[in-house]
Amino acid sequence: MRYDLNLLPIFIALMEERSVTRAAERLGMTQPALSNALARLRLMLKDQLFVRERYGIQPTPVALDLAPVIAEALSAIDDAVLGQQEFDPARAERLFTIAPNGYVEFVLVPAIVARLQAVAPGIRLRLTPYGNDLAETGVISGTTAMVVGRIVDPPDNLVVQHLMDEGLDCVVRAGHPEIGDTLTREQFERLRHVNIVPPGRLRAGLFQALAQQGLRRDVAISVTNFFAVAEMIAVTDHIATLPRQICRRLAQDPRVKVLPTPVDLGTFPVEMAWHVRYRHDAAHRWLRGLVGEVARELAALPG
Q1: CB 158: neighbour CB atoms within 10 A?
Q2: Which of 44, 61, 284, 295 sits 20 to 30 Å CA-CA off 69?
Q3: DSSP state of 152
């Protein structure tokens, strides 16, 4: 063949990362080795391909035209090869990096880890944060196996799967002097609130739901994770509006009680996304199936 196929994944890494340094790190190469590969790519494809700019590199028009063709060809090769491979979860030894948002890390990840311990003890997970930027998780470049949470405006190289829908409830302390077994709109608006930031997408969803219902909140404090909420609520007369699965866990704490929201705030989706190159990877498919199964079981639990 006239083409060195080993250079094509390097081309795709440079296209997706737009940085020689990041592409080298992603591929496990030194920068000099990657620069040498880029020189051979330029010779092979008879174009400059990438132009250096102040904050990285930008593809030339030729590179932009070639990128989808090369990516599709590499994906087809992956599909053909990986589709023939068998995967035995009971014997597998593998590390997967996943990016869950704060909700998923609290609700789904413990159940996923418990299931892995039972059926695939050699599978290990590494968690990386998922905030507002999909690119920062590594899923767009394929270095992260999947992101799980609220997926908004995914690029074309990600596959998105809906896992479940989640509702919202309220939490107050068990001995709250004003709140009994129900919560009125007036009480909701009068009480001071504990707000959760991030995860950013969930935060946006809650703010939008409140705005649609014309429901006001007087925010007393904003905390960065769900683990802090019970401690805040238990020692104050504040209130928090949280996902129902979070509330289900907090309901086991005798210091707090869970109440329905005073108006219907709707639901928000929980989704999973992965790079197209892992569509037919047997290990990735198995892990995605396990995550989906755990999510369905949790969603089916009585409220």
Answers
A1: 17
A2: 284
A3: -
How far is residue 29's CA from residue 182's CA, in Å, rounded to a whole number?
60
DSSP-derived 3-state class of residue 163: strand
182's tokens: 């129900």
* 38-91 confidence digits (pLDDT tens): 999 999 999 999 999 888 899 999 999 998 888 888 877 776 665 556 788 999
Residue 135 CA to residue 137 CA, distance in Å, equals: 5
Write the burial class of residue 129 (CB in 10 Å: 0-12 exposed, 13-18 middle, 19+ buried).
middle
| Residues in Cβ contact with 271 at an 8 Å cutoff, skipping those fewer than 6 apart | 148, 149, 150, 151, 160, 161, 162, 163
pLDDT tens by residue, 130-181: 876 787 788 887 888 999 998 888 888 899 999 999 999 999 999 999 999 9
Instruction: Give the tokens for residue 103.
Output: 């909700």
Amino acid at 48: Q
CA dihedral (290, 295, 300, 301) positive or negative: positive
Strands 218-223 and 192-196: parallel
Q: Is the dihedral of CA 105, 130, 11, 69 positive or negative?
A: positive
pTM assigned to the model: 0.71
Which helix H or strand E contains 271, and what residues bound it?
strand 268-275
